[in-house]
Amino acid sequence: MILQLRPSSLRARLVTLVVLLFAAFSIFFLLFFPARMNDQARRGMLDRTLGIARLLASATEPALDFGDAANGQRHLETLASSQEALFGLLLREDGTPLAAWHPERVPKDSLDDPRESFILGDEVFARVDIHTRGGQRGMLLLGFNLARLQQESLRTQQLAAGISTLILASGVLAAFVVGTLVVRPLKRVTRVALRISEGEHEARDELDLSRHDEMGTLAAAFSRMLDRLYEQRALIESQVRELRSAQDQLIVADRRTSLGTLAAGVAHEINNPLAYVTANIQFALREIPQLRRFSRQGTPDDQPCPQEEEWSEVFSALSEAREGCGRVQHIVQSLKSFSAGDDGKREPTELRRTLESAINMASNEIRHRARLVRDFQAVPFVEANEVRLAQVFLNLLINAAHAIEAGASERNEIRVSTRLGEDGRVRVSITDTGSGMVPEVRARLFTPFFTTKPVGVGTGLGLSVCQGIITNLGGRIEVQSEPGRGSTFTVVLPACSASVGHRPREESSPGAVRRARILVVDDEPLVGTALLRALGREHEVLVSTRAHEALFRVRQGPPFDLILCDLMMPEMSGMEFFTELQRTNPEQARGVLFITGGAFTEVTRAFIEKHQERALDKPIDMRALRERLRALVESPALHSHPTVSG
Questions:
Q1: Whole-number Å distance between alpha carbons of 11 and 432
Q2: Model-level pTM?
Q3: Which domains, from first to last, does the chain contain?
Q4: pLDDT tens track for 583-628
């Protein structure tokens, strides 16, 4: 006996597909998020331990230089302020200890490990070699406990499991709701079509032949088939079979497209699944008006559709979901901006935009503690690094939120204001109605490692780092606070000296430039791939990961309009490549631009200063690159050799 499976309905397939989508996403989240967070936490602990070791090594250098064991011991005993600290050893060059804090906790294996920072079991270690100005050598070895990190890892896993369960439950609920509300009108249309195909002529009155969309076309086709039913019954049945076959093919094609999109989403991280969900919501919102028209088939225009309220609920739910996705996307972009880092480059910065980015990042900390009030006056731009400045504002906002107890947001306020001072400087104030500070605490606010937060919550480096950033920008941070009356932190910055207009829209692009031949030389393949993707439609782009290979391509010809060359590469650096190109092909060397992530040696810095007009910083500003490309391509000096077109 052959077991035949009953064909599943469109509703069942739709429900199954949506549930699978959410299930796959929840599984991906459960597998990826805890591992990612645990890895970041371990790397962060290693970096933090090494940073503390380097600071302590700098502090104990005089003790090692003069053999002052008491001074070294005092510095090591400061580790007692950290509950995570296990031991500290200050060793002379011969390996004998000059000073020690809890030396009995030192594992033997840690003394032989040459790495600067490493993890053994449940402990993290950092060692720093010390070379004093007096010629003394020694080593500082610190050890910290990972118990708190492991607890955080367990909580992260539990949180990820809870979120994954919530995602899956939401997916199941959404699948049944959408499956029911979307498929119901389609079933009604299908029943009408079946009645017409079976010869029920009265069903023709339920078709709206006045429509000018796909539904009207289908209704007219069925009407014509009714008129010719008795004369060409066989032809009508054949057409119905063809229509049903086409419908099945469309369903299969739609399922393949959805599965392909799902596979691509699982292969990527958070942004791609978020984009897929957003696209599907927008697709559904575009399709709902048409489905509404389908559902009104047979309903007179002067009568409301029985499912109108349900359609409105679906439309509202999808609109809210789209808004939520937009908020999540904005948060992800902000986090990415903060985590991507920067090269310290300063440029005219709009404070309102920077403040909004920081407010968005801190909103989750603020919303349960206080109302956020914006009091923005018109102020000029400031010369700053936007990412670092946003880091300062974010730290001040979070500190303001932590100064207020959670649960009384209606009685508390955090006010963010901007104004131009009488001295011409821009002032950004963040005021809270929190607990305030006593003068003793206020006097030590910017001292490194000083914090009033519980152990494990703060490192005491936030305000110290903020003060360093603002001081480097030529500004200062002013503090006003009284116990029980809140605090006000005011960031004072010099206004940008140059006149600044509105920022150009990123999506605008310069006028068309003639097709050019470009060679990208970078040992990192992804950089070349990115530039090929960005410029490949407009120009002919070739990519080489080795300078020797690039020189071979230049010799083979035809000549290139532009050569984008990385400075720091193995085997042959960008400087050596440029020197060789100047020797063998000086005409081609005129079209070289250097892309660099920073200068790490005196030779490299001198080279960049000498060829400043040829340098582009990483990450590459594509607008700036296109402007440089236009200047090179339109330069008469480069028109002496042919370029590739078409």
A1: 53
A2: 0.34
A3: 10-167 (3.30.450.20), 231-294+309-342 (1.10.287), 347-494 (3.30.565.10), 517-634 (3.40.50.2300)
A4: 999 988 888 998 876 665 678 878 888 888 888 776 566 667 778 8
